[in-house]
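Need DUF3558 domain-containing protein's 3D structure for a figure. Predict it.
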Amino acid sequence: MDTLHHERSSGDARTMTRRPTTMLGIVVIVGALALSACAGLPSAPAATTDAAPPPTETATPAPTPVPGSVAPESRYDLDCDDLVPADLVAALMGDAVGPADPLATAASAGPSIPRMTSVVAIGGLACEWSNGEPNNSQFGTNPAYVGLLVTVVPMPDAGWSSRATKYGMPQPGERCEASFCSMTRATADAWIAAESRLGEEVAADSAAAAAVADAAAAAIDAASPSAAPTQPDSAIPTECEALVPTTAVESLTGTSGLVATTSAGGWSEWAEAMSIAGNGWCRWTAPDTEESVAAVSWIRGGRWAADRLDEAGALVPAGSDPALGLTALDRALLRCTEYTCTVDLVVGADWLQVQSDDEGQAVAIAREVAAGLLG
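Structure prediction for DUF3558 domain-containing protein:
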């Protein structure tokens, strides 16, 4: 997203010089007159080599990005090394870790939208240093994983959610056991969490873990957050019934009496970020067993996250196109594990995941969801 240099040259115009004559006779005079006449003729014009002006370069307009494809900018003018200095990371974690993408770490553990995606979506920070092993607490803990994850959730203009205030969050907290430490800090306008896992053979270091959390809090206190990012364009409705009717889920799964739920117990910094961003899930459960029959989760305006993980090769296991007949810019990916099947939908600006234990049911529900989003 070169300038030609031209040199101008001209020929030298030369005139013949008149010599003085002597009065030696008519022949000499005639010769002199002839010479004088020759000298009086005008010279031929000088040749020039003026070149045509260089062509004007026309700037190629930048292509308009696909809606949702540009990642939100952090509200803090900080990178991860500014948030937690390298010497504090080393004091806690040793030399077994390096910078990592927390979204890729979580996605590499299995099909699930990484919880940290919502933190990034609202202009927060999610910084990780790890040994490169996949890890996602939604699937339990990978014993081979060694890492430190520090997140910063900026407080929205309206203040913390009613769920957060109900539980008295955020507030300072420390918990360490075995090789794991969890630290939380509250600043004037941010919720900070730091989790470290040192591996099965290493005891937790509460003092070093506290130093990391304190450093992050001090960095955020000293920073002035910019305005919250604008809400992304999103076609995802706010109600489960509008996303896909329960009757349709019952018909597609062959299960009657399903109940749609949108929340779970407890609260945390990532749950607060999901609430701020308007992200979440709809889960349909059987009334007797409360087992999930199907679920849809989403990131509004989250195409950027799906693209990022796809480019990183973190959407595992390998999948296939379920042939939903989407438009050229949209896509779907079917991935199945031993336990469940997931259809990733990237439609418009949004990223959604449809899950069911049955592959055919997952694809059928995904087709229903995509049709609703596309109108």
